[in-house]
């Protein structure tokens, strides 16, 4: 297997290749002044299984197109199989029709990736498994939660309360709980599909005097974490941390979260940034070695 170092995850791709002992294929990429993308593989993948490591966080559309272009280039170069390793999968949240007249974005993305030559997809903590059902080729969804939980265990937060900010993230809090060995619970979050406005509530949580770690798959604007932190503080939590797999952290999200009393934000390198304190490289390299 050879690892194609997608420009959006170059460092992660390098770490994966080094851990797994696979050869790296660098990529030259650019965006022309008119916004169009260009990629070129700087190495051969002829007769190889090529794994492209390339996340599709912001700018999502550019990153998705570049992924498709790299897959096409790999197939044209004679790759016998192309696996896309896409830690953050853009558009996975629009996995069904919520309002009449919408499209199913992830279905279109899946068809585009298939047409480009991708044979298999590996992603990490996809927002909903339903999205994977839209792909016309095999997919694998890895979980980075053990790695995030271990970060907190090493930090001395054993027995911390693992909180899901909504019911959908409860599986995440429960996975973390297996490592932290404290309690787990969840808030309720409802969303107005027209305005996008969310409402959070939390009752019967035993968080008084406790260290609480809020675990979510994505932090985008930070609104969910800020709302959860407010409820936790009102209920007497001693310390609040925020952990996520995909730290999109749009605009002033980081500042808003820290201003709300959260001690630290911990994310993975699914979306590279200054809060990427946990690397996905061990998880991805093991998954690729097992293929
Ligand atoms: C949605 O249900 C996701 O799991 C996250 O909770 C959400 O994307 C976070 O978004 P924001 O940071 O904008 O509140």
Give the topology, please.
Layout (H helix, E strand, L loop, with lengths): L1 E4 L4 H11 L2 E3 L1 E5 L5 E5 L7 E5 L6 H17 L4 E6 L18 H12 L3 E5 L4 H4 L6 E4 L2 H11 L5 E4 L5 H11 L3 E3 L1 E4 L6 E4 L9 E9 L3 H12 L4 E9 L5 H7 L5 E4 L7 E3 L2 H9 L2
Parallel strand pairs: 1-2, 1-5, 5-6, 6-7, 7-8, 9-10, 9-13, 13-14, 14-15, 15-16
Antiparallel strand pairs: 3-4, 11-12
Helix pairs in contact: 1-9, 2-3, 5-6
The protein binds ribose-5-phosphate.
The site of ribose-5-phosphate has 13 residues, from strand 13 and helix 7.
The biggest beta sheet is recorded as: 6 strands, parallel
Segments where pLDDT lies below 50 for 5+ residues?
Answer: none
Distance between the termini: 10 Å
Amount of beta strand = 25-35%
| Heteromolecules bound | ribose-5-phosphate
Could you tell me the radius of gyration in angstroms? 20 Å
**What is the total tally of β strands?**
16
Strand arrangement within the widest β-sheet reads 2-1-5-6-7-8
Secondary structure class reads alpha/beta
Helical amount: 25-40%
**What order do the SSEs take from the amino end to the carboxyl end, as H and E?**
EHEEEEHEHEHEHEHEEEEHEHEEH
Shape: globular
Average pLDDT taken over every residue: 97
Contiguous helical run count: 9
């Amino acid at each position: 297997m050879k690892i194609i170092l997608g420009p959006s995850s170059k460092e992660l791709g390098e770490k994966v290749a080094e851990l797994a002992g696979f050869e790296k294929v660098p990529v030259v990429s650019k965006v022309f002044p008119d916004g169009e993308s260009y990629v070129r593989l700087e190495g051969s993948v002829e007769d190889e299984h090529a794994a492209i490591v390339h996340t599709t966080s912001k700018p999502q559309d550019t990153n998705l197109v570049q992924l498709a272009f790299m897959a096409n280039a790999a197939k044209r170069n004679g790759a016998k199989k192309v696996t896309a390793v896409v830690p953050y999968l853009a558009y996975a949240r629009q996995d069904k029709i919520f309002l009449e007249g919408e499209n199913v974005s992830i279905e279109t993305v899946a068809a585009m990736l298939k047409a480009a030559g991708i044979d298999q997809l590996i992603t990490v903590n996809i927002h909903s498994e339903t999205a994977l059902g839209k792909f016309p080729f095999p997919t694998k969804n890895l979980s980075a939660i053990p790695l995030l939980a271990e970060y907190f265990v090493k930090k001395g937060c054993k027995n911390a309360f693992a909180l899901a900010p909504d019911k959908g993230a409860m599986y995440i809090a429960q996975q973390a709980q297996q490592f932290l060995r404290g309690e787990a619970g969840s808030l309720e979050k409802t969303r107005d599909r027209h305005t996008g406005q969310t409402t959070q509530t939390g009752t019967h949580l035993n968080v008084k005097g406790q260290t609480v770690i809020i675990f979510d798959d994505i932090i985008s604007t930070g609104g969910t974490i800020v709302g959860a932190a407010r409820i936790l503080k009102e209920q007497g939590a001693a310390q609040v941390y925020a952990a996520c797999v995909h730290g999109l952290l749009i605009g002033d999200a980081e500042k808003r979260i820290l201003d709300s009393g959260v001690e630290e934000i911990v994310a993975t390198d699914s979306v590279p940034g200054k809060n990427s304190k946990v690397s996905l490289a061990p998880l991805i390299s093991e998954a690729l070695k097992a293929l």
